From TrEMBL:
Domain annotation Fibronectin type-III: ranges: 17-105
Organism expressing this protein natively: Nothoprocta perdicaria (Chilean tinamou)
Annotated gene: F3
Source species taxonomy: Eukaryota, Metazoa, Chordata, Craniata, Vertebrata
Family: Belongs to the tissue factor family.
Record Pfam families: Interfer-bind, Tissue_fac
Protein name: Tissue factor
Signal peptide: 1-30
């Protein structure tokens, strides 16, 4: 009569199959692989992030380019992020990351650890332009001029100075200025390929503005982060003058009756003693 195999034997058989399957796939069983892998990159500083937090294993990141050799970063990390900026130097190249799940004991093993694959990332097309830094702005009569700096990247020239986003994007980089009369909502804009805006404004109004980098040739992530909003203070001078006038008027308003009263009293006093006069 047919009798099923004892449970221990079944378990052994199942384990055997699992091992065989793993050997065929070249994976070690058990370790979770990374999910929700994201690239976040601003001014070419690029961080790879993923989940979940590892409990009793580690992650190692491999960066694969089209022409460069595979490079390892954040070897056996317990973090869920990795700064990969320095291995993405060929900014026009398209990279992929493999996030390996490893245990330390398995490091010398020949087996390929399980891994997750990121989406492709091309720094030149995908890094986000950071905020431009405004150095100087003035409003003189009807001319407003604004001077600002290109954001810097983490990459250096051979002489040790940092490359700016303009050093990399060159003619692909523009800046947009948005400006409006203080207290009003109608925005105007202007565009430049230099580091200066000079625009005509109404000379008796305050203006507020911000600046944003733009890469018009991109189809995605064209606009960068917005600079802080700043406002011209044309009105302060006028305000100070008005305040001074107001103070003068007020002083006069108080002083005048006093003076007049004194004069009147003096006059009355004089009229009361006409005989004593010379
Ligand atoms: C991955 O992201 C989704 C959606 O944001 C979230 O629901 C899920 O919990 C994340 N996975 C892990 C392992 O954190
Ligand atoms: C600021 O702008 C004014 C007028 O445009 C210019 O004379 C001055 O040199 C600028 N200062 C700096 C630090 O750029
Ligand atoms: C470094 O080299 C770059 C490009 O050759 C140049 O623009 C920059 O002014 C140099 N910086 C210094 C501090 O010499
Ligand atoms: C990067 O952007 C340029 C210009 O938009 C485009 O021609 C090129 O195909 C893009 N490269 C990738 C890998 O998406």
């Amino acid at each position: 009569p047919y009798r099923s195999a004892p449970p221990r034997m079944l378990r052994a058989r199942a384990a055997g199959w699992t091992l065989l399957l793993c050997a065929l796939l070249g994976r070690s069983p058990g370790l979770p692989t990374a999910v929700n892998i994201t690239w976040s990159s601003i001014n070419f500083k690029t961080i790879l992030r993923w989940q979940p937090k590892p409990s009793d294993y580690f992650y190692t990141v491999e960066i694969l380019g089209q022409t460069s050799n595979t490079q390892r970063k954040c070897i056996q990390t317990t973090e869920t992020e990795c700064d990969v900026t320095d291995v993405l130097r060929n900014v026009r190249e398209t990279y992929t990351a493999h996030i390996l799940s490893v245990t330390s004991s398995r490091m010398d093993n020949f087996e390929q650890p399980p891994y997750a694959v990121s989406e492709n990332f091309t720094p030149y097309n995908q890094t986000i332009l950071g905020k431009p830094e405004i150095q100087n702005y003035t409003q003189k009569d009807s001319k407003m001029s604004i001077v600002f700096k290109d954001p810097l990247t983490p990459y250096m020239f051979p002489n040790g100075s940092f490359q700016s986003v303009r050093d990399i994007f060159k003619n692909d980089l523009e800046y947009k200025l948005y400006y409006w009369k203080d207290q009003s909502s109608g925005k105007k804009d202007a565009t430049t390929k230099s580091n200066k805006f000079e625009i005509n404004v109404e000379s008796t109004k305050n203006y507020c503005f911000y600046i944003q980098g733009i890469i018009p040739s991109r189809s995605k992530s064209r606009t960068g982060q917005e600079s802080m909003v700043l406002c011209t203070k044309y009105g302060t001078e006028v305000f100070i003058i008005l305040a001074a006038v107001a103070v003068a008027v007020l002083a006069l308003a108080i002083a005048l009756p006093v003076i007049l009263c004194k004069r009147k009293r003096a006059k009355l006093a004089r009229e009361k003693q006409p005989l004593n006069g010379p």
